[in-house]
Design goal:
Blueprint (H helix, E strand, L loop, with lengths): L1 H5 L3 E2 L8 H11 L5 H18 L7 E5 L7 H12 L2 E7 L2 H14 L3 E3 L2 E2 L2 H6 L9 E5 L9 H13 L6 E7 L4 H7 L6 H17 L8 E8 L4 E8 L3 E5 L4 E5 L4 E8 L3 H10 L2 E8 L5 E8 L5
Parallel strand pairs: 1-12, 2-3, 2-6, 3-4, 3-5, 6-7
Antiparallel strand pairs: 7-14, 8-9, 9-12, 10-11, 13-14
Helix pairs in contact: 2-9, 3-4
The structure holds N,N,N-trimethyl-histidine.
N,N,N-trimethyl-histidine binds next to helix 9 and strand 12.
Length: 308
Amino acid sequence: MRAGLTAKPKRLPCRFFYDREGSRFFEAICELPEYYLTRAELEILAGHVAEVVTRFPCGATLIELGSGSAAKTRLLIGRFLDRDGRLRYIPVDISRTMLEASARALLDDFPRLEILAVAGEYQEALAHLPADVGRPKLILWLGSNIGNLDRPEAVEFLRRLRDLTASEDRLLVGIDLRKDRRVLEAAYDDAQGVTAQFNRNILARINRELGGEFDLRLFRHRARYDADAGRIEMYLVSEVPQTVRIAALDLAVRFEDGEAIHTENSYKYSLAEIDETAAAAGWRVECQWLDRERRFSLNLFVTSEPRL
Ligand code: AVJ
């Protein structure tokens, strides 16, 4: 937080959005009429779970990066359990509270599911996966969570995943597509102001956890689409000149009138960019499905090179 707030221009890492409150706001975003991503991905998944599951023999392990409430994952879990009678599920999420709640809810509904939950950031969590993770593996990276990485970072992370996988494994990645600016900007600046609350929660969290004195009313939510970069950028813009104290950091942060904190990037891909990104990281797009309105893609990646 200190590094970001003393940087020029100011920025905060988007992973800090997801405390208990932030995770709730995000769940609410997923229900918004403007936020088409979740519904589009669910539509695709519902149409193709069987196709995904048939590629795996009995006894597969499901690993999910950024599992959140795991609402969409239920389709896959249900299908695997119907067929195999058992399944090992390893959800990884930065929000411990969300992870615990979703694991409990899943066990209530699927008593034969075996869950090993890992709370942490992706990179860290991957290092903590048990050495005997079952084979074959299906790794899920849904919801366009890839969008928070810049393009070189996305390649680098996909390469790390590739290094963990064998030829019988698969990676199922949900990726939001480039599209009309109006559709994108509405999805990240909804009429009810839920995304604005989600964005401001990062300041509320500094207040709660670090003794910050941010007045949330003095920061405006801003979302803009940079069509060249293919990314939505979110900011919190100071509406007045002000100085904000943060006790635990022993820091006073000065804001000029209209000065912004960059809080999130959400990258969008063309179909060609998906192919290029996969290829650059040692994957091949085995299957690709779009929703009816062609707003979102679900991609089944398989390794393109034999492992050394
Ligand atoms: C969780 C990163 C996929 O970028 O669409 C939603 C986060 N931010 N609305 C996204 C988010 C504002 C979301 N991801």
